[in-house]
């Protein structure tokens, strides 16, 4: 990711220990209506996981939500976190953070 990207991951990859809790973080540089997380497994399309509305901090989950997932917004630091508890091998995937800006098109960053 370029430093000019409106949203970017804090780390490009991360290793996990089975059963642990992990936090993925993205930093954004533009005002956003909402911030989203997606998961993409090999050979599949990205799947929506969870989003948070910046102004109200209301959370919307996928139609079949994973109770192990939570999202946190740090508005002052312009960061959004995805927390995954009780990690399993099946959590190995690409994770995307994306934002819905108030003016321009949607931007996303690869985790």
TrEMBL record:
Superkingdom of source: Eukaryota
SUPFAM superfamilies: Immunoglobulin
Residues in Ig-like domain copies: 9-111
InterPro entries in UniProt: Ig-like_dom (IPR007110), Ig-like_dom_sf (IPR036179), Ig-like_fold (IPR013783), Ig_V-set (IPR013106), TCR_variable_region (IPR051287)
Single GO biological process annotation from the record: adaptive immune response
Any one GO CC term of the record: T cell receptor complex
PROSITE patterns the UniProt entry points to: IG_LIKE
UniProtKB keywords: Adaptive immunity, Immunity, Immunoglobulin domain, Receptor, Signal, T cell receptor
Listed name of the protein: T-cell receptor alpha/delta variable 1
Natural source organism: Astyanax mexicanus
């Amino acid at each position: 990711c370029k430093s000019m990207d409106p949203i970017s991951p804090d780390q490009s990859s991360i290793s996990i220990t089975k059963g642990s809790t992990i936090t993925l973080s993205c930093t954004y540089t533009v005002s956003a209506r909402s911030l989203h997380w997606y998961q993409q497994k090999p050979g599949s399309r990205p799947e929506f996981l969870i989003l948070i509305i910046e102004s109200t901090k209301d959370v919307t989950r996928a139609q079949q939500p994973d109770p192990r997932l939570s999202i946190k917004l740090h508005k002052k630091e312009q960061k959004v976190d995805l927390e995954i508890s009780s990690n399993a091998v099946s959590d190995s995937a690409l994770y995307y953070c994306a934002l819905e800006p108030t003016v321009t098109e949607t931007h996303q960053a690869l985790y």
